[in-house]
Amino acid sequence: MGRIAERISRLGTETAFAVTAEAAAWGARGNKIYPFHLGDLNIQTPEDVMEASIKAMKEGKTGYCPTAGVPLLREALAADISASRGVKYAMENVAIQPGGKPVIGKFIQALMNPGDEVLYPNPGYPIYESQIQYHGGKALPYGYVEGEENFIFDMASIERQITPRTRLFILNDLQNPTGAECSPEELEKIAALVLKHDLYVLCDEAYFDIRYFGKSASLVSLPGMAERCVILHTFSKKFAMTGWRLGAAIGPKEIIDVIAKLNVNDESCSNHFIQYGVLAGLKGDLSGPKRILSILKERRDTAVALLNSIKGVRCFKPNATFYLYPNVTKAMENKGLKNYDAFRQTVLHETGVSFCTRLHFGRALPGEQESYIRLAYSGIDTPLIKEGLGKLKAFLES
Questions:
Q1: How far apart (Å, rounded) are the C-alpha atoms in residues 229 and 108?
Q2: Structure confidence by residue, pLDDT tens digits, 376-391
Q3: Rounded distance, CA 278 to CA 239, Å?
Q4: Shared domain check, 322 and 192
Q5: pTM confidence score
């Protein structure tokens, strides 16, 4: 073990997978599990995507493809992103990736030098902090506060941390785990900060298309932002294909060229035939994604209503993502459970309901007083949501 490189000690992980293993172990002992812990989807990938992938496979598209992706897909995605964000992207602005996650590390490698500071959301996707620290940067966390209808960005914590060493800003609008989204005013403030401090931005828009009401907005739509932003795009959510592993980086050509060069070094190219499947999905009638959204909306509405009926729990109903982030401070106090692990494990053993807590999305920030858990409803059907949260209610109110 003494030969392991020092930088590996700075590499983090997704502790949500440990919760998955713990729930599986409890289930293996004959206990029923209600899996709210992992943001996977148990909804079938649309038929047109599957059929086009199989057709491409049978036609021999099983070898290498261009390192930045199949040109037809890059063109179609550039057109799709341009139309939805009100900007003008071309094929040269797109690099296809084996999932959305690789965009995080490649963005950081392309633009961050050791010692540079990077603002990132906390609570947030843990791979942000992991990749910043692994590549020698200084991770600066910013948080969220409860608003009237949803969580809102703590703009004060963002502004006060910016120094001359700050180079990058990670923005996960339509956010995991809170479901927070930027208001038009917040986007304007962020754009002003980006220009004032000469920052580059990773716009993690993995949930841009998982929206039940209203219209998603992007920072890249604001003046001067398309030149400074790289969009993290993934097909996993829109087409319910998390395990297929296909995403994209979209941004300024000079940055995308670097990301494509990193593709050569890391994986050569993304899966060939899957790209033709997604291409068919993008050009199809979108009945598949609409069906997925309809299923997720029913699950969201059911879960929110049940959570808000539980004594000691309050929960916003976000317009996007497939996560809920209820405040359970009073519920924990009522049961005499003083820390997250005790609460999570007790609930699992008493009810079978498995979930992640705030601490699976970063260390608690100074001054945090309230307690939160995250429930993903993407991998559990509505009848089981009712059954599982019914048991949770009975336990927390007993």
A1: 12
A2: 999 999 999 999 999 9
A3: 8
A4: no
A5: 0.94
